[in-house]
From TrEMBL:
Natural source organism: Magallana gigas (Pacific oyster)
Chain ranges passing through the membrane: 34-53
Protein name: Steroid 17-alpha-hydroxylase/17,20 lyase
InterPro entries per the UniProt record, alphabetical: Cyt_P450, Cyt_P450_CS, Cyt_P450_E_grp-I, Cyt_P450_sf
GO MF: heme binding; iron ion binding; steroid 17-alpha-monooxygenase activity
The family this protein is said to belong to: Belongs to the cytochrome P450 family.
UniProt keyword list: Endoplasmic reticulum, Heme, Iron, Membrane, Metal-binding, Microsome, Monooxygenase, Oxidoreductase, Transmembrane, Transmembrane helix
Superkingdom of this protein's organism: Eukaryota
């Protein structure tokens, strides 16, 4: 209530006692409103002092001008911050400071500064920025991707890496790829006109990871898989958009927004599903038999417990950690793999001459099922995959890191607790390292002797250092086999008269898929089409 309202009330009142009451009440209200104003001014002053002291104490990287507290709204509310920041590199250099509200975010835009931070000063930059919805989703940081750097995280990551190695050993993955892809390619060849390949790719990848994790092979329309996929898709969109609780963390303890409550409900549904599968595996587990990734995890955990030569404390490592790993693999694997496949099909249908070269290479192997052992004979196919990941990194900004101590990069100070992102979109287009960076040219990944140049200078689709993608050793051969298996059977063409388009649409923070496009396919297995 404002003081004006109180005076109006006073003037119209005939009752003196009531007047006295109102004066008292008005004063009290004025005091309250004054207190709120004081608090507000105090908070603003606090932030400003913090802002000024930080500027004076540290030599922070440059960045676009911003309003204190509010920050660079045009960057953090945009759906393509990787592009926006890339455009700033000429003006501000490779290390750019962008304010997300009152929080400082540092973008690293060249391979040189990313290597300095993530590899040379690996431990300083190995933390993760903690947000409320992330903490909720990971049962308080019991996963790998969002957990902060800690001894428990190290054990967790080591066991998961071992499990992936167990999984890659043998022919589990290649058999499953062939079986799974055939189901969906059989459907694609039945399309009589131009169609969007997105839906098929999405189902293909989801079923693939479903089988990787749970060992179950399900028909394409299986209702259980569909239900899980629907919840997953809704969760990814809502989680990616962020919630108020992430901006104002204490809110989650006082009052939960409807959006956050819904996120919690979806998380519980997904986790009760994964937990059920996990428990069934545990009941039927036998260390000598490896049916899928859950078995691989159980084997790796047993080994870690039996052979604890480094004296690590594995006692607190309970089932929740392993269930969280399964969830990590699902979440980290699906959208990245799906997006890369989508771009691969988009580039291949727009470049028939490149596609023909891939098919020629596959043809030299024959029409039998492709296996991991064929990798060295699929060099041109792999170069196409690498070029796809260069132009369209599945996670252009990776997952935000957080500094664990005061440190430096590119000659600037980076205070403890700063959010740091590597901009792979910028690194993969750096004109100092890439000629005609915007053109699709797989030959840039081939050496003079025709072998694959797997580690070019400015190329990091899986990041580097302590938090490098855990799935890289699986994702690369898996994607190669998936893409080559697709081209072995299908010729991917644009509908007649349609020109290629390689424009992206932002999905979530730093992620882009190709704009909606249609293709027609020719079945090479039954070459009568
Ligand atoms: C084309 C496919 C993929 C790409 C391009 C990709 C890329 C990335 C990137 C850029 C990061 C962030 C690294 C950082 O914070 O510096 C990451 C993290 C991660 N990825 Fe992948 N990824 C892919 C597939 C996969 C798959 C299939 C799995 C699971 C088997 C996986 C599991 C993870 C995990 C667990 C992390 C978190 C690592 C940590 O924080 O220690 N990724 N990935």
């Amino acid at each position: 209530m404002s003081s004006g309202t109180v005076f109006t009330l006073l003037a119209s009142s005939r009752n003196i006692r009531r007047q006295i009451f109102l004066v008292g009440y008005g004063k009290m209200m004025m005091n309250i409103s004054l207190n709120w104003q004081t608090v507000l001014v105090g908070v603003c002053f606090g932030f400003l002092s913090y802002y000024v002291i930080k500027r004076l104490k540290y030599r922070l990287p440059p960045g676009p001008p911003c309003v204190p507290i509010i920050g660079n709204v045009q960057v953090y509310t945009s759906r393509d911050p990787h592009r926006k920041v890339f455009k700033m590199v000429d003006k501000y250099g490779p290390v750019i400071n962008v304010s997300f509200g009152p929080v400082t975010w540092i973008f690293l835009n060249t391979i040189e500064v990313v290597n300095e931070a993530f590899v040379q000063r690996a431990e300083d930059f190995a933390g993760r920025y903690q947000i409320t919805s992330g903490i909720m989703f990971t049962d308080g940081g019991k996963d790998i991707a969002f957990a902060n750097y800690s001894p428990m995280w190290r054990i967790h990551r080591k066991i998961a890496a071992k499990a992936l190695r167990h999984y890659l050993h043998g022919s589990l993955l290649e058999d499953m790829i062939q079986e799974n892809m055939s189901k969906f390619m059989d459907r694609m060849v039945k399309e009589t006109g131009p169609f969007e390949p997105k839906q098929y790719i999405s189902l293909m990848v989801f079923h693939q990871l479903y089988t990787v994790c749970f060992g179950e092979r399900r028909p394409p329309d299986d209702p259980e898989v569909r239900e899980f996929l629907e919840i997953y898709d809704r969760f990814v969109v809502d989680f990616g958009a962020g919630s108020l609780e992430d901006l104002v963390p204490f809110l989650a303890h006082v009052y939960e927004t409807a959006k956050f409550k819904n996120l919690v409900r979806m998380k519980e549904k997904m986790f009760s599903f994964i937990t059920q599968k996990y428990n069934r595996h545990k009941e039927s587990f036998s260390p000598g038999i490896n049916r899928d990734l859950i078995d691989s995890l159980l084997i790796a955990k047993h080994e870690a417990e039996n052979d604890n030569s480094e004296g690590e404390d594995t006692e607190e490592f309970d089932d929740v950690y392993l269930i969280q790993t399964v969830s990590d693999i699902f979440f980290a694997g699906i959208d990245t793999t799906k997006t890369i496949m989508d771009w691969f099909v988009c580039f291949m249908s727009g470049h028939p001459e490149v596609q023909a070269k891939c098919r020629e290479e596959i043809g030299n192997i024959g029409s039998r099922q492709l296996t991991m052992k064929d990798r060295h004979r699929l060099v041109y196919n792999e170069a196409c995959l690498y070029e796809t990941m260069r132009l369209a990194p599945a996670a252009s900004l990776g997952i935000p890191h957080c500094t664990l101590c005061d440190t430096q990069v590119g000659g600037y100070d980076i205070p403890k607790g700063t959010v740091v992102l590597s901009n792979f979109y910028a690194i993969h287009r750096d004109p100092h390292h890439w000629k005609n960076p915007e053109s699709f040219d797989p030959s840039r990944f081939l050496k003079k002797d025709g072998t694959l140049n797997a580690k070019p200078d400015s190329y990091l689709p899986f990041s580097a250092g302590r938090r490098v993608c855990l799935g890289e050793p699986v994702a690369k051969p898996e994607l190669l086999l998936m893409c080559a298996t697709l081209l072995q059977r299908l010729e991917l063409c644009l509908p007649e008269g349609v020109r290629p388009c390689y424009e992206g649409i932002p999905l979530s923070f730093g992620m882009e898929a190709p704009k909606s496009y249609k293709i027609v396919v020719k079945d090479r297995q039954n070459a009568n089409c």
